[in-house]
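Researcher: Please predict.
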Amino acid sequence: MAPPEYEAKKRRVRSDYGYHQVHQTRWFDNDMYAHLNNTVYTALFDTIANAYLIEHCGMNPFSVNNPTPKSQSGGSAVSVGTDQIGLIVSTHADFFASVAFPDILEVGLRVAKLTSSTVTWEIGVFRKGEENVKMVGTYTHVFVLRETMRVGKGGMEAPVRQGLEKILSGPDSKL
């Protein structure tokens, strides 16, 4: 018998996730078994989580090499949270059904757990037009000071935390 958490993940729907992206699979995403290679799922995790951090939390991963990046509108982008970086400390995936090229994927993101210095993301992968989730993964970042690679005294920076709280999945998820 599967654990209750597994069964709950298997019942996820798009509306369980507060942030979404669409991804077109590519020919070389398939593995020798004709389904999406596991490394592609990891890339999806990384892409959606970092896009959210950039778009909604003010993170600027390029600030070290380009301190004043241009926004898409041509002006300077506001750079918040550049004293910290998020390091991956844990990943996990539960697979319920296969996807493969040429599927178009709809990927959902939510914050499953938020502590003073960590965020555990939950990512749901759906095939476009289908309601059943194909995979649910978790991905944990710990926010550390860029210079020391250690957690700062105040935990994650306030703008980052505020952005993460917008897609926090429930009141019991915050510590």
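Model: The beta strands are 19-24, 84-95, 104-114, 118-127, 133-145.
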